[in-house]
Write a structure and sequence with these properties.
Elements (H helix, E strand, L loop, with lengths): L1 H12 L3 E5 L5 E4 L1 H6 L12 H5 L3 H12 L2 E6 L7 E8 L5 E7 L1 H40 L5 H31 L8 E4 H19 L2 E5 L8 E4 L1 H17 L6 E8 L3 E8 L21 H7 L5 H11 L3 E7 L3 E9 L2
The chain binds adenosine-5'-diphosphate.
């Protein structure tokens, strides 16, 4: 009991709420911070059940989890006024009680939300003018194809077109990330013919591929059922654009990028294969991490945020699929995605 007292005291001094819960799920002791964080009157918590104190049914599961395997964490919003965002950690003590620690992270969450909203707004604002510049650069490119201009002008215009393409891609990825961080809209699931998605992707990236001197090709099964998955068409299109965009970006002129669709037992396999620079073995697992780039110098030269694959993985996981990569440095890469059949 003296021990309990010391622990509650220490937690209090650190500004952390602490509760001790007995085996029957009732609060035995609670420090002042716990009362404050839960919006309870001083000294009112002992004797209450956790449900009464937290007004959040998840807390009982958390305590049971702690009783079963000795460590459990959740983030909850308190019923107090104003509501707080609190991280709750429950841990089984040697005496059979569960110690619950409450940490107020409202301010951190608020700052995170502001950052996300900022990125979101900025990307939205940038997207429209950028897309316009992009279209103008593209039109200019077509215009000078029909005109007598110096090779240098031709080169400059191609470069502008290329770089604005990268910018548009980056802004799109930042927007996607912001959406993911905000907990985003639910998937609109329907039957999706991957042949259609592949064709649309190739159409979209063709100008970029042509400039890079890369050939785009598809290999698709003839039977529609062997190409159809249950998913959100827009998200799947975005997934494929990210993979094919990378494949082109890291390929040498004169090589080809192939999009395969193959039926498996209960899944459809989508593969994007290139014969580009490849990925060193030690980086293979890490390329799906946010902001990860294999060779920073090279990646920065070709442009990119390091977000494309993180977004791709997120989309695949939301579809209950799998994504992986095989690659050999200097030979090329194959990104594979297995998605449940429709
Ligand atoms: P980025 O915007 O930098 O392309 P990604 O998340 O899409 O970000 O990719 C992360 C890193 O993985 C890239 O910077 C690159 O180093 C590597 N990578 C991705 N796709 C390929 C590929 N097809 N061939 C070689 N390297 C690749």
């Amino acid at each position: 009991v003296a021990d309990d007292e010391a622990q509650l005291e220490l937690a209090e001094r650190l500004g952390v709420g602490m509760l001790l819960i007995n085996e029957g799920g009732r609060i035995r002791r609670a420090n002042a911070s716990a009362h404050r964080l839960l919006g309870a009157k001083p000294q009112s918590l002992p004797g209450k059940t956790t449900m009464e104190a937290f007004v959040d049914h998840r807390i009982e599961g958390l305590i049971r989890g702690a009783q079963a395997d000795s460590d459990a964490v959740a983030e909850i919003t308190t019923a107090s006024e104003p509501a707080l965002t609190v991280i709750v950690r429950a841990r089984l003590q040697l005496d059979g009680n569960v110690a619950v620690l409450l940490e107020d992270v409202s301010e951190l969450r608020r700052l995170r939300r502001i950052r996300t909203e900022f990125v979101d707004n900025l990307s939205h604002e940038l997207r429209t003018p950028l897309t316009t510049v992009r279209l103008l650069a593209e039109s200019l490119g077509m215009e000078i194809d029909r005109t007598e201009v110096t090779p240098r002008i031709r080169e400059y215009v191609a470069k502008i077109d290329d770089e604005t393409g990268h910018l548009v891609q980056m802004v799109t990825e930042l927007l996607d990330l912001a959406q993911i961080e905000q907990g985003e809209a639910p998937l609109r699931v329907q039957d999706v013919d991957l042949a259609r998605v592949a064709a649309a992707t190739i159409e979209r990236l063709k100008p970029y591929a042509e400039r890079q001197g890369v050939e785009l090709r598809t290999e698709l099964p003839g039977v529609a059922a062997d190409r159809t998955v249950g998913g959100d068409e827009e998200r799947l299109a975005q997934l494929l654009v990210n993979l094919v965009h990378n494949a082109i970006k890291f390929s040498a002129s004169g090589t080809e990028v192939v999009v395969h669709v193959r039926p498996l037992d209960t899944e459809i396999l989508l593969e994007v294969e290139d014969h580009g620079v490849g990925i060193p073995r030690r980086d293979l697992q890490r390329v799906f991490e946010r902001f990860y780039k294999v060779d920073r110098a090279r990646a920065d030269r070709v442009g990119g945020t390091g977000l494309g694959l993180a977004i791709a993985r997120h989309i695949v996981e939301r579809h209950h699929g799998r994504i992986w990569v095989e690659s050999e440095e200097g030979k090329g890469s194959r990104f594979s995605v297995a998605l449940p059949r429709a």
